[in-house]
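Researcher: Next sequence.
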Amino acid sequence: MNKRVFLIVLDSCGAGQMPDCAMFGDADCNTIKRISTSEKFSCENLRKMGIGNIDGLDFLGTVENPTARVARLAERSMGKDTTIGHWEIAGIVSENPLPTYPNGFPQELLDQFTMRTGKRFICNMPYSGTDVIRDYGKLHMQTGDLIVYTSADSVFQIAAHEDVVPVEQLYEYCRIAREILCGEHSVGRVIARPFTGEYPFKRTANRHDFSLEPYGKTVLDAIIEQGQTVYAIGKIFDIFAGRGVSYKVFTHSNTEGMDLTLDALDHDFEGLCFVNLVDFDMLYGHRQDIDGYANAFAEFDRWLPSFIEGMSDEDILIITADHGCDPGDLHTDHTREYVPCIIYGKNVKPANLGTRTTFSDIAATVADYLGIDYSCPGISMLGEE
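Model: Next structure:
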């Protein structure tokens, strides 16, 4: 029977602030603790696996006989965003932060963008995605100018109404921006943010990320090179700029992502199924919606038994996160946090592995289990006590 790893990233489900969080503008952040205060929160199945045994998460309730190996992972990379977090999970530690633009993008970059696209722009400031269409959507509808904005993360975002700029045309503008944003301006992601309707406008599910290509070799690359499969669900394909992916399927919600992950159990492959569930971050973390976040976490917890029941004896499941996004702190941006790591399989011996020094321990674990020759800063979490 083929060996398979199902790696699920609960996007932004951080496990408590890291010691250096103040360097990243954060304080008093703990995403999971924050949502645990909501009456919508529950984690009965994750608790049985041992989530409450993870360093700093004992408020969830410890168990004497957990069913999984658990650990808390520190981020070694200089960042707290989706791109850097996923790259580190896949084996690349980023020594330098990706560029951010707290005062907007330089005029020379935007002049290039206007010259290449023939489109003018409005805004050019850090903004919440929902607020920016509230404040600039009407002007965009009147002028046709693109709404260009950023955030605390390394992103260049373009918002446009689907009736003014068709989605495929918006994607083409993003591809042009991706070509322009190179060298010292190599932002992590260029993001298409289409919206629709009449005021108050509503963002659609046609978001698309155009990511920077990873600087080095990831475990995904190694898996492909050595003849196995990488099956990407959600925005994984975008995060890695399409590199190291055999098959891809995009999703529009956590529910769809979980359904497709369940379906993947019926696929005959050897290798990695890499999943991102983005609603935690996009719909609830950034929007400071504690109850919504807690409810989404509870939905994932309720889904888990159906997935575990379908696992074969040779399958392992890894559940983790890529950063934090505390929905109750003082800002709407990502937060510099540890992340949880839960490793489950019928042949995986439960243990508490304490606090680890890098997300890349996941890449090393995946390579170890699949028998892939791959070197990275991480250490496999299999076989340790």
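Model: The chain has two domains: 4-97+212-370, 107-210. Residues 160 and 194 are 5 Å apart (CA to CA).
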